[in-house]
Amino acid sequence: MAFGVSDDLLGTFVPIVVYWIYSGMYVMLGGLNNYRLHTKAEEDTKNLVSKGTVVKGVLLQQVFQIAVCLILFTLVNDGTGVVPPQPPLLVIAGQFLIGMVVIDTWQYFMHRYMHINKFLYRHIHSKHHSLVVPYSFGALYNHPLEGLLLDTVGGVLSFLLSGMTPRTSIFFFSFATVKTVDDHCGLWLPGNLFHLFFNNNSAYHDIHHQLYGNKYNFSQPFFVAGPRDAARSNGQGSRDFGGAPKTGLPIRTLYIYIYIYIYIYMIVCFTYYALKCI
Ligand SMILES: [Zn+2]
Ligand SMILES: [Zn+2]
Question: Cα(123)–Cα(13) distance, rounded to whole angstroms?
Fold first, then answer.
């Protein structure tokens, strides 16, 4: 028996499920005080909105995201019901890379403009900056218009310009979601593989959320653009308390991360195959 859940629907909903699971994991790790970029007291006093408001704001944004994704997949669907074949793995890897570059380029300039244009900053982008001390599930806490312009349109462009199939997009958007949540997690955990592969990471983006730092570090979510940004991407900036180790791969933490990544991958695959093939 087949539930007949299409790749289109999975590409729409799996990244949202992944968002809440991955950010929930970081909520559980929030008590690791030695690894926090800011103290819990700072989180409680500096942030301008409550966690309940953030959850509601993110859910609203995800409703918009669902609507746009469904419209997009309907438009690109040829109506035959035939699932496009997956290209070779090397091609998929290339599409991933193109998608990452496209989404980064789009978000960099849109994000920077939202800081330059005082009207847009005051009425739209400042909502994201009301979290001076970011935490995982606040990653998509944006004005709905910003969510639409930066995240959703950026995602649509990366999908269209890379030529990836809806099936590939399930994994691409899940990956982009995990990276965005990771950048807002508020922790600098040794062994985080993202910190090894990306200069654009939780410490880098944390600087941008600070009052002193919001003229820097506009790049998101994958790479670092421009020497001015790159100079502040070394993960040092905001960790001005405690002794959270920056380098090294304590083997236990590495195991935890490998476990988490496999777990997330399994959730995506399991959801896909369970709904698609049973
Ligand atoms: Zn900003
Ligand atoms: Zn942010």
Answer: 29
Residue 1 domain-assigned (yes or no):
no
pLDDT tens per residue, range 101-122? 999 999 998 999 999 999 999 9
The overall pTM is greater than 0.90: no
Beta strands in the chain (DSSP E): none
* CA-based nearest residue to 18, from 150, 122, 173: 173
Q: What is the pLDDT of residues 91-106, one digit of tens each?
A: 999 999 999 999 999 9
Which ligand has an atom closest to residue 146 CA? Answer: 1
- Paired residues of 187 in beta bridges: 36
Bond from prior residue into 245 cis (ω within 30 degrees of 0) = no
**What is the tally of structural domains in the chain?**
1
Distance 88 CA to ligand 1 centre (A): 37
CA 48–ligand 2 middle distance (angstroms): 14
- The answer to the question of residue 189 being in a domain is yes
Structural domain that includes position 42: 7-76+86-277
The 10 Å Cβ neighbour count of residue 197 is: 10
CA of 58 to the centre of ligand 1 (A): 17
In a domain, 190, yes or no: yes
